[in-house]
Amino acid sequence: MSIDFDAVSAASAVTPNTAANTKANNSPVAGSQDYFLKLLVAQMNNQDPLNPLDSAQMTSQLAQLNTVQGINNLATKLDSLLGDVNTSQSLQASSLVGHAVLAPGNTLALADGQAVGGVELAGPVDHLTVTIKDANGAVIHTADLGKQDGGIVNFVWDGSTDAGTAATAGSYSFAVDAKLAGTAVAANGLSAGVVSSVTPTATGASLLVSGVGTFDMTQVKQIY
Questions:
Q1: Which one of 17, 29, 35, 152 has the lowest number of neighbouring Cβ atoms within 10 Å?
Q2: Containing domain of residue 23, as a range?
Q3: Cβ 115 vs Cβ 106: under 8 Å
Q4: Global model pTM greater than 0.85
Q5: Same structural domain, 144 and 202
Q6: Do 168 and 154 sit in the same domain of this protein?
């Protein structure tokens, strides 16, 4: 179906573009629908009686317009559903306040002779080593965790150093070395902390983990 642009221009000239019209059609889809209908009406009013518009093409175009409207309505409903899911997730996340979790990080908090940490392995390893460092970056303890399956591996450090002394309470960092048959395996450190607050966001719930940082709920690897 061809478009007579002279007819469209004439139709547009006699159609006032008022503020009310602008407000009623402030979405891209609504604007497209309005423009399409103007084109269709202009064509029908200015069609050649000897060569009338093809009704099949008109029907096809109207069907396309209804499809666009349906997609727009579906998108609106999905946005509403996503908002409900995010609200529900935030309410569920609030129950985590006061609980200890493992989240991405490489810090250890030594208190009362104990520090808890973890490692997330991309696959099985036959050699896993955790190296603990003090605030100055000096290595004070190396722990050989041996052979491990893929997934999350927990470890507990009792504060003992390689020099045979006890480390003072405080914050430490650790590095991970994971290998299988001499080849490095991807490994990410996990830090333990207590969830102190939950903040609802447009994408879900954000958790503030004391001593570790802020994380999306989906980043939490383990809950105690």
A1: 17
A2: 5-93
A3: no
A4: no
A5: yes
A6: yes
